[in-house]
């Protein structure tokens, strides 16, 4: 198949303005496309990650809630890598985001932590 990486990750949000604020202004992902699709009553926001991966943010009216706790089958969480865990956690906390205590991956000895987006989607920071 010659797969070379992840092209994009799609997220459906409940409140477009709040999620756009979170991913653009809090997380710092630049916008490279934003459209409103009238026929679907839906926004589609394309964000760029530093490695070229894209994050697609969708809003759909009356989308069902995603079960996170207890964890459901399927996609578990979204993980971003950082080279400076302290700075990343400090920046999130300064912006009012509740971040879990740091943990150590028992297999790699790397540090990681979790926080949630406005809809409760678990997001992991993993130190590389």
Give the tags.
alpha/beta, four-stranded mixed sheet, 2 helices, 8 strands
How would you describe this protein?
This protein is α/β, with parallel strands linked by helices. It is built from 2 helices and 8 strands, in the order βαββββαβββ. The chain has helices spanning 16-26, 85-94, and strands spanning 8-13, 31-37, 42-48, 54-59, 78-82, 103-104, 111-116, 122-127. The strands form 2 sheets. A 4-stranded mixed beta sheet has the order 1-4-3-2, with helices on one face. The chain has a 4-stranded mixed beta sheet with strand order 5-8-7-6, with no helix packed on it. A hairpin with a 6-residue loop joins strand 6 (103-104) and strand 7 (111-116). It is globular, with a radius of gyration of 15 Å. 9% of the residues are buried.
Task: Write the SSE topology.
Elements: E1 8-13, H1 16-26, E2 31-37, E3 42-48, E4 54-59, E5 78-82, H2 85-94, E6 103-104, E7 111-116, E8 122-127
Parallel strand pairs: 1-4, 5-8
Antiparallel strand pairs: 2-3, 3-4, 6-7, 7-8
Q: What global shape is seen? A: globular
Q: Biggest sheet, strands in spatial order?
A: 1-4-3-2
Our Rg estimate from Cα atoms comes to 15 Å
The structural class is alpha/beta
The CA-CA distance between the termini, in Å, is: 28 Å
Count of alpha/pi helices: 2
Gist of the model:
The protein is of the alpha/beta class.
């Amino acid at each position: 198949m010659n797969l070379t990486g992840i092209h994009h990750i799609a997220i459906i949000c409940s409140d477009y303005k709040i999620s756009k604020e979170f991913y653009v202004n809090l997380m710092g992902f630049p916008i490279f496309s934003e459209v409103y699709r009238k026929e679907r009553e839906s926004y589609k926001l394309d964000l760029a990650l530093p490695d070229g991966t894209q994050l697609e943010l969708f809003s759909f009216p009356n989308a069902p809630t995603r079960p996170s706790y207890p964890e459901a089958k399927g996609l578990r969480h979204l993980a971003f890598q950082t080279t400076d865990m302290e700075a990343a956690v400090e920046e999130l906390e300064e912006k009012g985001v509740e971040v879990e205590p740091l943990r150590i991956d028992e297999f790699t000895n790397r540090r990681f932590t979790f926080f949630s987006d406005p809809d409760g989607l678990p997001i992991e920071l993993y130190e590389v």
